[in-house]
Write a structure and sequence with these properties.
By secondary structure, this protein is of the alpha/beta class. The chain has eight helices and seven strands; from the N terminus they run E-H-E-H-E-H-E-H-E-H-E-H-H-H-E. Helix content is 45%, strand content 16%. The structure holds nicotinamide-adenine-dinucleotide. Nicotinamide-adenine-dinucleotide binds next to helix 1, helix 4 and helix 6.
Length: 253
């Protein structure tokens, strides 16, 4: 496709945290960005920030785990921003607990948002990408995919996303579409604040303890992940597909 066409991108879970930073970064790279989250009004600040810097963005309220909500959200993006050619499956929740205390509901919620959500979003978005013969899908996995105490549901979902990513790469590659996963380590967001709270620790203390195990000697910021997404979403990354990129300040263990 012509390189001067503005491409639309969808970032799910983009009202805050990693998703918000990613939406802003993709807008700075020239994409028109759909800022999608559960509550449309919660997306407005990110949209205004993007517009204030001359970018183009649209706030969309949708639940990624709901099939009809996903269908109408993506068709609204296509109508109002253009065919979505980049999809970042970033929406996420945690429902941490040790296995013996984990409820079936906590299991299902985490599977539904991460796995079912990424499946539903990708299935709808790929139609536009295959038509354009160009597309980028980036799924947010996690170092927790390697196993993490108290996260049986989340680590299973994040490992599942890596298999999902490889299969999308195989099925969609011939249409000029790449699919990759990014597996962040410890990133300072409301999600890691909630983890500290669950562990009964002030966030600062939790952060310091975690940073001791990070090779580069600092915690991650949402912008660290946004940079990796921007790279994988760009034209230069067209020969990278089916990979999981650990963005964790050191080798993932
Ligand atoms: N923060 C970290 O250290 C870290 C590490 C590894 C992976 N991740 C992953 O990165 C992604 C973003 O994490 P974050 O730290 O920014 O989290 P966050 O909790 O700050 O933000 C997640 C966003 O997803 C939205 N969301 C939740 N359920 C949704 C649904 N059903 N439909 C649409 N939106 C929904 C939330 O409303 C929220 O705005 C998640 O997939 C998370 O699992 C985060």
């Amino acid at each position: 496709m012509s390189t001067d066409t503005v491409r639309a991108a969808i970032v799910t879970g983009a009202a805050r945290g990693i998703g918000a930073a990613t939406a802003k970064r993709l807008a700075a790279e020239g994409f028109a960005v759909a800022v999608l989250d559960l509550d449309e009004s919660a997306c407005k600040t990110v949209v205004s920030d993007i517009e204030a810097t001359g970018g183009s963005a649209l706030a969309i309220g949708a639940d990624v785990s709901d099939e009809s909500s996903v269908a109408s959200a993506v068709s609204r993006v296509a109508d109002e921003l253009g065919a979505p050619l980049v999809l970042v499956n970033n929406a996420g929740v945690i429902r941490d607990n040790l296995l013996f205390k984990m409820t079936a509901n906590d299991w299902d919620t985490v599977m539904n948002v991460h796995l079912r959500g990424s499946f539903l979003m990708s299935r709808v978005a790929q139609k536009y990408m295959t038509e354009a013969k160009w597309g980028r899908i980036v799924n947010l996995s996690s170092t927790s995919a390697l196993g993490n105490r108290g996260q049986a549901n989340y680590s299973a979902a994040k490992a599942g996303l890596q298999g999902f990513t490889k299969t999308l790469a195989l099925e969609l590659g011939k249409f000029g579409i790449t699919a990759n996963a990014i597996a962040p380590g410890f990133i300072e967001t409301e999600m890691t604040q909630a983890t500290a709270e669950r562990m009964g620790m002030p966030f600062e203390q939790f952060r310091e303890a975690v940073v001791k195990g990070i090779a580069v000697g600092r915690s991650g910021r949402p912008e660290d992940i946004a940079s990796a997404v921007a790279f994988l979403a760009g034209d230069g990354a067209g020969f990278i597909s089916g990979q999981t990129l650990y963005v964790s300040g050191g080798p993932a263990v």
